[in-house]
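Hello K.,

You asked for the raw outputs rather than the summary table, so here they are, unedited. I folded two proteins back to back in the same session to keep the settings identical. This is the first:
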Amino acid sequence: MLLDVLSPAPVRTGHPRASDDAAGSPARGVFFLVAVAQAALFGLSGLFGGFYDFSAWGALALISSVLLVALVLVQPLALSRPAALALAGVALLAGWSALSMTWAESVDQAWNEVNRFGFYAITLTLVIGAVRTRRHAATVMGVLTAGLAVTVLYTVGAMLLGDGGSMFKDFRLEDPLGYVNGMAGLGLMAFWAFIALAEGARHPAARGCAMAFAVLAGDLIVLTQSRAAVPAVVASGLLMLAVVPGRMTRAWALLAACAGVAVSLPVVLDVYGEFSEQVLYPADGTVRSAAAAACVAAVAAGVVWALACAAVPGGASRALRRVSAGALVAIVLAGAVTAVVAVGDPIDRVKTEYDDFVSLRVDEDRATRFTEGGGFRYDLWRIAFDEFKGSPLRGVGAGNYDTDYYRERRNPQPAPQPHSLEMQLLGELGVVGLAALLLLVAGVVWGIVRAAHDSLERDRWVIVGAAGIFLAWLAHTSVDWLHNIPGITGIALVAAGVVLAVRQPGEERGAIAPRRVSVAVIGLVVVLALLAASEGRRWAGEYYLARSGSELNRDADAALRDAGRALDLNPDSLPAHYAAARAYAAMDRYELARSTLLDAARTEPSDYVPWVLLGDLAVRHGRLGQARVAYRRATVRSPYDTDFSVSSSLGELRGS
């Protein structure tokens, strides 16, 4: 299906000579394969936890840094004006995060954010530099969409044929990604990739297949019961209708996909309808029925859409388009009226849900979480905004949101980030961080608008798919933390890179060339080398830390040596301190274990965890006076938690 819609010829995107070189240079062909590999990895990342662990994305970041150095050294780096603006935004995020290490309490967490934003900047630059023709763009988007299709098929297949109930947490779809809201965001990004094909594929059969996948992705979103998905779905839909031309066909495609999902809802919602605090997850049979209903609805929607596309020619008459627009408006109005009637008094409902939102109320007895406005985000955002007010220019430092959160929170949720990219940047990096994000978004939106204006009719599915994926990610991560999941954010960055790669002749002539602008090239290579060294050093530290944990039960001396190596590489790492303390405790060296944990407490004075561990350690060695002091200090740093006590710790020991 995807190969069907790739552009038939390598029509040039920029300056003729540059495009000819791009097609004929073996080195540039290699970098294009790198971009294809990126698209495949990120498209499939949902099957591998979104590369959330640093052991996964850190290795990718190190490899990407080396590859980008090679790219800069062998070919001109031509940036369109939108691309330059977007890259300036990501580079500013990485640079300001690095500077924030000088004022952040947790240098370790700030350093992690430097590497993360650096990885994002490198990923975006690699795609922009490697994609040089329309065929390149179509191939990269095709591979990315194929990866998303495989992820959707695997998820639905596992629910149909495997132990589907175990894929859920609290009756909400969590696997294969391992995070409920992340699955919703991944489903929404996949949904827009498939809608783009349903709208722009050449053959009606390909459009029908894409529509079937869109319905499956929509049902996966429903199965997550993610409240964050509701504003993300609405916002991305409105943005795609407002920003990208071709609205009529897109609106009908959205209507068809929504109808397909609606048909399956009575069965799909049965999964969450089984919610019970006494059971961990839904019955396999219920999940299997939901997946089967989703498949039937998807096939039906695909067939109907394919027949409709075959029946209505692409160049429909003006009269037919007017009839189509009128019918669409009538259907939308009828749906809006039905929704208002179902809700009752809309103003009263809005007031009620807002009150639930600011009061942090959660009602788990509803048949679906989508109609509930409660939750804990108001508390999370309040703390981030307080951090911004305390330091509006620079914030508390990259990755340091939780230095205040546990002390100030009014809810039970452990959260190292405020579940919003904008609020996280405001709290951690101040107005500079938010300005950097605005540069990134402005550059990508500018690129989308320009690409749509220049070549929408020739490359509709590529442009619509790339725009939909990025805008869906932006909308969803504005109310969650998809930006902290490198694999999911990588999908958005590959899509953004595709539309930002479109260059005009003047921009090709302004490229940074290895031979002509040696100072700029040397500067860029130096920055990339420093970033590679940073990523490599941290990755090595994480490697020794993981090895220390695996060695602890069989060889405490080896575990201690590896914990020491991790501390040498990253002296500010609290996990490395904990690993060393565990090794000392296993060797029955109480004072050294205690001293190591006290060092951890001094490293990050706001963190309550070192004091909890000190209390636990003291209880195990009968030092109850020291334990009481440690638990009191933990409670000061996290007052919401009331179970830090000698009695509770002793109870756990007796129970074990």
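The second followed immediately with the same parameters:
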Amino acid sequence: MTDFLAAYQTHLETDRRFHPELVQSYLSALPELLQSQRLSSPAELTKEEVLRIWQQQRWEETSFGIRSRDVSRDRKLIALRSFLRYMEEECRALPNGMHSIIQVEDAHPDRLGGLTSDELNRLKLALIQNISTCNQRRETALIFLICETGLPLDTLLELRVGRNGLITANGKSGDFVQKGGRFYLRAGKQLLPLSNNVIHFINFYLENRRHRTVKLFVKGNGKDAAGHWPVVSALRSLTRFFKQLDISIPKGRLLDVLQATAEQRIQNSQKDNKSRRQLALPLYSSSRRAA
């Protein structure tokens, strides 16, 4: 059973792009339902056993007898239906149609998960080679910025740089600020830290484009080449890039996935910083006592 659930977890994370919390919710719900039928493997499930699970979950005992439950949003049953469909369509380990016995709606989560660590590595390798043309360099700079900050696409396309058309290490360059040797992006009242890698690729794009302007991202071609890069055009460009990279993204949800990637990165960074502070405190305290 463990092998099937591990493969199913990968399916949820990469193909369905579920948020990590929802993935764990599904994985925790399945073993209880499957083990109730005393099976050694999910591949042993029959239609009769699935129907029995469905009936057991639909009805409950009360002080007045038996009554049916509203299971339309039952977490366990939604997880089971999704798993059965995966076993039918992806693994070919169960007969088609078994998932339809569980009459609940398929999950269409609003909140998605980000790219996995393996996908991020593939993305970075592809991006550092995606610099042959001005449009590619612009594309690479934008993807790095989205994954770093999680800001909406329309906000990023309105960003400005210094009057010389660059981001320079001398204080403020449009919406970019350098403080204490580190660059930040000003977003409203927030200062979002940026890695040197992101600044490197942005400046590489800026230094090699034809038009020097305070706009970070410009259209790049046509009559209005130095004009605003439209959101629709930018999204089309990003979608094409990820399709070529063969990273599975739910249709129309690319920006959600990239913003979730940024959210995961920020959360991991905060956890790392907290861990470092916790490790440093005992050492500091012990040194003070020793003195």
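DSSP finds ten helices and six strands in the chain.

Happy to rerun anything if the numbers look odd on your end.

Regards,
P.
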